[in-house]
Amino acid sequence: MLLTQYIAEKCIVTDLQAATKADVLKELTNLLFEQKKMKGVGPALDQIMAREATESTGIGHGIAVPHARVSGLKNLICAVGRVKDGLDFMAVDKNPVHLIFLICYPPTQQTTYLNFIATVSKLLRQDDHMQALLAAESDEQMFVVLEKLSESLVQEEEHYESQVKADPDLMKTHDAHADLVLLARLQLCQEMYETARTGKKQIKARIENIRAMVDARILKHYDRLTKGRAPALVPVEGDTCQGCFMKLPSQYAQRVRQDTDHIHNCNNCSRFIYIV
After folding, report:
1. pLDDT number for residue 21
2. What pTM, to 2 d.p., does this model score?
3. Partner of 233 at 20 to 30 A CA spacing, among 14, 29, 107, 272?
4. CB of 206 closer than 8 Å to CB of 186
5. pLDDT recorded at residue 176
6. Domain limits of the chain?
7. Cα–Cα separations (whole angstroms), residue 114 to 95, 97, 111, 131, 140
8. Burial (Cβ within 10 Å: 0-12, 13-18, ≥19) of residue 179
């Protein structure tokens, strides 16, 4: 995913002055509003604060990804803030956070949001990439660095997809949970197709290529869900299915975490689920 497709240059702050997590979240949410990326602050900020009170979105390696699902948005939007000296975010690795990607997205783009976070995480787990962003001297320079880094990752993914197309067994060799990965890519491409203004023919071709690689039985259930209960593939956060918002039985949630050799379904809404 090209991150700068969702991050405007004017929504980057390389020198956040806020001293607390709450102040940082308020500043970045207000920035999206001031740049006319969304119509109001309250609903998004309330969700973001509530999520942080339950569980920190500091995912480690100096990165935090606070987020909110906001009705009325057409596309995912993101504000980026940098705290050079670090900020206590109660991150999973207990280290200070330096980069905050505050994300707001419409309910119809849940897979886009998850892929956005996955892209951020994959890019910035490389120390040289992280250092390049920390060394950026201006908002404009940070935007350029983000664009170059995510462009390189897009090229890697396109090369890998061409290899998989030529040899479908390649994905099975590299990923025991291949069908789940394929479903996530399929759902993302379908979301992209619905919102794209150009390039629909190419996206459609990618959709057909991915569908050809998914197990027929799994694809049949996916299509049934897409018609009646989209999205078909959803995350589980805090043991709660993000499709029907029902809490999974604790033993079943633990099984989903531990058993990565099978695809699991929510026992309430039947959607495909995975733990984030």
Report:
1. 93
2. 0.73
3. 29
4. no
5. 37
6. 3-150, 167-275
7. 23, 20, 5, 24, 26
8. buried
